[in-house]
């Protein structure tokens, strides 16, 4: 039967890449459980079989353990790949749950293969994050504000039920009155019970470190999205994507709702994966942080990142800090009126060394109304402001780095989200969600490598 199955699998079939890739992995070194069978008892399924099954599933948008069980018994490609073994869905699901670290290392091994054969050079990577929906609805996520709002609505319902019971008791008679009052009392009791539940949830919320409780997936968190007045309960998935090949060189999953502190860990993870001495990173304004840019500079990572607009002066028609030119030789700022703002003193705020500049000529300046409402306009300069200015200067150029960033890093997110469907994750808890993302990233990278060098080229690289 194996010979006949072989006839169905062409030499350029993607399933051969999966088979060869897993066979070339050192599964015990990667941390997979049960790589060596026990001396006694019936041997379990070898992790290579289950890993092949999962990689095939994510390559073909079949992430469910129950669907994989069905496919293993009827899909010719899977029959060839697994040697006609058909694990049950519980065994398949347990393998994904228990071997998360090994699966994530397997994903990293494919990135290393791409680097080793020279396809992935990684001189420049784009970093971005995207919110993925968790197995937890918004109604099953609680914050202090949500609880207060719901209790207020429920207490209004209580007042309405009480008023209605009083009205019925006065105006109705006989059995109709008794029936209506009993019905309202029952609804009143349910509402009071719900209020007590929310109050207990509020007391438990006081012990939550980040002020949130999710009931279905305890690790999921409410996160804002780009759409106005919208959000979801989910996870923040981070990727670093090579701008030349569009391969995902590093990824991470966090339940932190913003990206401000993630530039350094993602950039360093990409640099380590690519084994580069120096690297260039593109990121959007959500990652902007002076501390993060300085840490990247110390790690020999060049950053190109826009500075977010935090002042409302431009909308008011007033001058912004960008309208004041810094002259490094004289250590002064030149205002739009041409006056020099000399250095005055240095202070420290939140661990940052800040230098203050101003002039006493503002009082007689005809442009003062467009500059400041105070006595004088003061400019603050961070001790490492030149790094921020250099990052901003790199934004202006013929290569249009932000266009490159958008065209590089947003496509993989769109592809992976389309594969995962509207529900995104199937599993709960951060550790399991990380495993799901690793399998999706591995599937994406395999398909991308096949597009770059073909099935035969990839198989030749795996054998080398």
TrEMBL record:
Native organism: Pleodorina starrii
GO terms of biological process kind: DNA transposition
Residues annotated as domain Transposase IS4-like: 227-446
Any one GO molecular-function label of the UniProt entry: DNA binding
PANTHER family: TRANSPOSASE, TRANSPOSASE DDE DOMAIN-CONTAINING PROTEIN
Protein name (Swiss-Prot/TrEMBL): Transposase
Residue runs in coiled coils: none
Every Transposase InsH N-terminal domain range: 4-97
InterPro entries registered for this protein in UniProt: IS1182_transpos (IPR047629), Transposase_11 (IPR002559), Transposase_InsH_N (IPR008490)
The organism's place on the tree of life at top rank: Eukaryota
Pfam families linked: DDE_Tnp_1 (PF01609), DUF772 (PF05598)
